[in-house]
Amino acid sequence: MATFPHNYKVTKENCVISVDGESFDVSTWRNYHPGGAESLDNFNNRDATDAFYALHSKEAIARLKRMAKKPTDMNTLINQPTKAALAFRDFRKKMEAEGWFNRKWYMDALYIGAVVLMSVLATMWSRSHPVIASILLGVAMEQAGWIAHDYGHGRGKACYVLNKIFGQILLGFSSRWWSNKHNTHHVFPNRIEVDVDIHNEPFIHLWFPQSGKDVWHRKYQHIYYPFAYAFLHVSWRMQSIEFAIGSGDWAERILIVLGYIWLATMNPIVPISAIFIGGFLVAIVVTCNHQTEEIINSDAPYCYVTDNF
């Protein structure tokens, strides 16, 4: 199997992906892709079947099928479907037919209700009980992040709206920024120079740096990493603000501002503490579930199934 060249460059004239054995020219569409152009660029001249079905709604799937297409010469693809990938496709169809992908809205209501309740109590108690309010709001922000994450991957208008409420208002994160970054993470998890979620240098190194690129404080990161992790939400908020300013999306800007207006109604120590508490909790979960897994070199063979599971 051919390797995955991390330095492969594409232009708007040559972005062609393969789905279900058919080729689609997405050179123009890439500029309007809700998940960002980068994820399409990384699949130029590659089979994107498994990643496509994992991340797209029925409406998006139907839209792709209406685009101009032609049969793919599988031998020309940089990555060809493996036996594991073909078996996974059959398994996924079986699970979908059996209803495993259907939502249980009463569970959604439970999670949403818990976050809303903690947020309301934190707001009410921010001046009378700031310590308790800080902990409640911090946990609410951490849980809101996972809810926004799940609805960001969800399908339908309800998921779209809930992602905006929990992601932009409660957390101050840009949904478009998150989508561009996070979809790439799910498609190319832990792949050096592609998945930005594993690149925390120079503060945290997940692998030994190349000669000449090491820093003096790396040998102490086992001591200071909790402090660095607490800044996760601070970093994401700053990146979101920068993205929202440059994106021209006024609806997103307004929702983010509304979130900060809400935080401004509290005792300042509460939202400030909560942002650090929530960031730390999220960073610990992400590290245990993602960054402790195998780190994949950028030039390693690519397979969506074996890279993700």
Question: How are the SSEs ordered, and which strands pair?
Answer:
Blueprint: E1 16-19, E2 22-25, H1 37-41, H2 49-55, H3 58-66, E3 69-71, H4 83-97, H5 105-125, H6 130-153, H7 157-170, H8 175-187, H9 221-229, H10 232-247, H11 250-264, H12 269-291, H13 304-308
Task: Describe the protein's architecture and organization.
The chain is mostly helical. It has two domains: 16-100, Flavocytochrome B2, Chain A, domain 1; 105-291, no CATH class. It contains 13 helices and three strands. It has helices at 37-41, 49-55, 58-66, 83-97, 105-125, 130-153, 157-170, 175-187, 221-229, 232-247, 250-264, 269-291, 304-308; strands at residues 16-19, 22-25, 69-71. Strands 1-2-3 form a three-stranded antiparallel β-sheet. β1 (16-19) and β2 (22-25) form a beta hairpin. α6 packs antiparallel against α7 (157-170). The two termini are 19 Å apart. The model is unreliable at 1-12 (pLDDT under 50).
Quote the distance from N terminus to C terminus: 19 Å
Total count of helical runs of at least 4 residues: 13
Largest sheet: 3 strands, antiparallel
Helix content: 55-70%
Keywords:
309 residues; 3 strands; disordered N terminus; 3-stranded antiparallel β-sheet
What's the short story on this structure?
The protein has 13 helices and three strands; from the N terminus they run E-E-H-H-H-E-H-H-H-H-H-H-H-H-H-H.
